[in-house]
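TOKENISE THE FOLD
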Amino acid sequence: MKNMIMIAMMVLAAASAQAQFLWKISGNGLSKPSYLLGTMHIAPTDSIVGLPAVNEALDNVSALVCELDVTDPSAPQAAQAAMMRYGIAPEDSTLSKVLPPLQFAMVEDLVDEKMGPMATTMMLAMDRAKPLVATMMLGQLLVSDETLVQLVKKYGVLGSIDEALVRKAKARALPLVELESMDEQMQLLMNMSIRDQADNLVKFLDNPDSGFDTLDEMLTLYLSGDIKGLERLFMSEKNTLSPTDNLRIFGLRNSRWMPRLEEAMRRQPVLIAVGAGHLVTPEGLLPLLRKAGYTLTPVKG
């Protein structure tokens, strides 16, 4: 399941790193500063988690605020159950009904080539799934070892910064504050419009490596601390989310998180670790926190 989530991030979306995505939050009545770190769900974790500034932030806080605890042993089962609840397409929106005939035939040919005797079973499951789930399944089949090797050669061993931070916090006996559940996150992802999901699948079929190209660009911007560059990328056509889905997945979640973040910061100093996409754009956490009266200071590595 973790591999499928990683593929989804690649589809939808090695230098020395700078901690430009780490910010100190102060003012507005806080007795002690908290910190905000924009993470990447797929990245060379040591380049960020090993930074002195990140470790100093962990030394100065009493809890870690994260999207959810991805190290929970029950997380894979929870993700699988949530995908079964929200990833099944309505009867009038099965894959064979929402994809153009040519693209559906491409899917059939690809599955037949990769799955052999299991192709019929997989196609039955894929046809009942929402296009995003089908894209994730195809991603696992089509991503080449060569592409993965190229990314690892350039950036080193890839993993989840969020997961590495949670493990580090637990090793320090820091409590976790989760902003949402696996069920909430999966529901949000799977409730993107079927039409947009189908359009994204068509784009993926045209160029299966496009997600890796975007991920490569994101990693370069992130590790160089280019927050403005990352914002431009999120606002460009390379962001395959529609404006409506982009607002729902980032902007509305940020607004929903704000009261929880403020409550956590007023109770104790915390390190907030969420995807870097939640920091940027006019609906990002950085402008929302400033608007709420907090002072944000970038922390260098």
Remarks:
- The beta strands are 22-26, 34-39, 63-66, 176-178, 270-275, 295-298.
- The first strand starts at residue 22 and ends at 26.
- Confidence is low (pLDDT under 50) at residues 1-19.
